[in-house]
Amino acid sequence: MLALGTVSLITDVSSEMVTAVLPLYLVAGLGLTPLGFGLLDGVYNGVSALVRLTGGHLGDRLGRHKALAGIGYGLSALCKPLLLLAHTLPAIGAVLALDRTGKGLRTAPRDALISLAAAPEERGRAFGVHRAMDTAGALIGPLLAFLILRGAADGYDAVFTVSACVATLGVLVLVLFVPGRRTVPARDTAPVSLRASLALLRRRDLRRTALCALLLGLCTVSDAFVFLLLQKATGIADRWFALLPLGTAGAFFLLAMPLGRLADRVGRRRVFLGGHLALLLAYGLLLTGAHHPALPYAVLLLHGAFYAATDGVLMAEAAGAVPEEHRGGGLALVQTGQALARFTASLGFGAAWTVWGARPALSVAAVLLALAVAGCSRLRPGGA
C-alpha cells in the first residue's frame, strides 16, 4: 500500500507540474479561446475513459494488475518530453491524448490492487491513505512548477523537462518496490471476459453507483476552469496562477483520510454526495462575485473537500459490489462513465463560456449539479 502510494506521489508531482501551468500556457501563451481550451481539457480528461475498460479488463483477464499499471505509468512518462515539441492545437491534443491513454490503462488496475489488499470494512480508509499520498504529489508539483517558472528563462520548457524526469522515477519505484498480486478466478465463476465485465452492470448496487457517478460528472466543471474562474473573480496575477492547485491539493491531503474513515462508518454514498454539495457551494461563492480576501481560500478548501469526499470513496463503494476476479473491470466501468461525463461537461462548459460568458455558464452548471445531487439522493443506498 505504501509503495503504491509512493509511486502515485511521485507520478503526481510530474503530472501536476504540467497541469498547474497548462491552462495559462494554452490560453495566455498560445492564445487559445475558452472553446479551444475546453476541447483540449476534454481530451485530457476524457480520452482515458476510452481505454480504462481495456486496462481493467486486461488486468482481470491476465491476473496481472501491476503489469498493466506499469505500462500505463510508462506511457505517460514518455509523453512529457513531447510537450516540448508540440506548439499547435492538434499536436498538443495528440500528446495529451497519449498521456491520458497511459492514465486510462493504469487507473483501474491500480485501484484493483488497493481494493484487493484492504479488508472490505476498511476500504474507505485504504483509498483515503492512497489518495492522501497521491495528493502530496499534487502539492509538490505546482510548487515546483512555480519555482521553475520564476527561476528559468524558458520556464514552460523547463517545467516539461523536469516533469519527464520525475515521471521516469515513478516508473522505476513501481517496478522495483510494488509487490504484484496475481488473481485467479474461482472454479465456480465464469471466465473473465469483456462481456462478463460489462454484465456487471446488471448488479443493482454497481449500476446505481455508476449512474450517480455519471450524472454528477456531467455537472462537474473541470479543475482548470475552476482555477480560471477564480483568477477571473479575484484578479490573481498570472505569476501566482500555478499556486492555485496547491489550495485544492492541500485540502484534499488533509481531508482524504478522515473522510475515508467517516465513509466507512456512516456510509460511502452519503459522504460522496456530501462532497458534491461542497462543490456546489464553491460554485455559489464564485458566482457571488464578492472580492473578499477570503474568497480564494474558501473556494479552494471546498474544492479540495469535494475530491477528498468523492475520489477514493467512490472506488471503495464500487469495490464492494464487484467480485475479486472482475475487480479491475468493475471499477473501470464506474471510472469510464464518470470520465466520459466529465469530458462532455468540459466541452459543454467551454462552449457555454465562449457563447454566453463565464458567469451564465457557471450558473447553468450549478443548477444542473443541484438537480443531480437531489436525484441521486433519492436512490436507495446500495453497498457499504
UniProtKB/TrEMBL annotation:
PROSITE patterns referenced in this protein's UniProt entry, alphabetically: MFS, SUGAR_TRANSPORT_1
Keyword Lyase: no
Pfam families found in the cross-reference section: MFS_1
Main localization, broad class: membrane
Gene3D superfamilies found in the cross-reference section: MFS general substrate transporter like domains
InterPro entries attached to this UniProt entry: MFS, MFS_dom, MFS_trans_sf, Sugar_transporter_CS
Transmembrane segments: 25-44, 132-152, 158-178, 210-228, 240-259, 271-291, 362-379
Keywords: Membrane, Transmembrane, Transmembrane helix
Membrane topology: Multi-pass membrane protein
Coiled-coil region list: none
Tagged with keyword Transmembrane helix: yes
Compartment(s) where it occurs, according to its Swiss-Prot or TrEMBL record: Cell membrane
Domain Major facilitator superfamily (MFS) profile positions: 1-378
SUPFAM superfamilies: MFS general substrate transporter
Name this polypeptide is given: MFS transporter
